[in-house]
TrEMBL record:
The keyword Membrane does not apply. This is Tetrathionate reductase subunit B. Signal peptide: none annotated. The keyword Metal-binding applies. GO terms for molecular function: 4 iron, 4 sulfur cluster binding; metal ion binding. PANTHER family: PROTEIN NRFC, PROTEIN NRFC HOMOLOG. It comes from Thermodesulfovibrio yellowstonii. Keywords: 4Fe-4S, Iron, Iron-sulfur, Metal-binding. Residues 142-171 form the 4Fe-4S ferredoxin-type domain. NCBIfam families: DsrO. InterPro entries: 4Fe4S_Fe-S-bd (IPR017896), 4Fe4S_Fe_S_CS (IPR017900), DsrO-like (IPR054822), ET_IronSulfur_Cluster-Binding (IPR050954).
Amino acid sequence: MISRRDFLKITAFTSLLGLGGAFTINALEKESGQKVLQDIKAMKGKRWAMVIDTRKFKTEQDFEKVIKACHKAHNVPEIINPLHEVKWIWTDDYEHSFAGTAEEYISEEIKHRKFLLLCNHCDNAPCVRVCPVKATFKRADGITMQDMHRCIGCKFCMAGCPYGARNYNFLPPRDYIKELNPEYPTRTIGVVEKCTFCNERIDKGLLPYCVEASEGKIVFGDLFDTKSEIRKVLSENIVIRRKVELGTQPMVFYII
């Protein structure tokens, strides 16, 4: 166990290197045994996870409502060119969503469904391991965070993520935002961004925007709480996850 004097020395040193943010917060929490700057209304959870009921998404409007709620709230730029597009949540077909683990003999109806995709907030997140400046880091509750201010745009996290959940800002994002949300910071050209499970809402005791907009089609909760709704849903349905063979332990489940 390090002394308080040594702890302060390490904190000061890492801050000078520009690496202090996430490390310092984690160290402070470990040292004090308390969460730092946590809102008293914050949702309490040891391991946040999400379940998407693909059976309930029947129309394009069902998907659009969820995607728009997320993108509008987080000032995600609307760029048509697929080479430059930025997305936090999107859709794809069964074959591409579950490449590698897709069942050849699954029903044709499921093969033709669309699936909502987003960051999987993996337990064993490769993006966290490869980020050289700790712009990508894990919160104690399992959320994989992206500090857009710390990001240096090296794209290592994009190469490490097997889910295509990260996007690089090749163009100035503000030029492609039709309706700016002043309550959420915009990004700059040259940085990577992604879904953060709406950590800003969780810390205020609110559900993620996509969950709220889905009107019961998406369930969000603490996977470690045996009495939670998400555990009940998982126990009563057949679910699949994306690319589990990679050992990333994704925390987004799909009811089929």
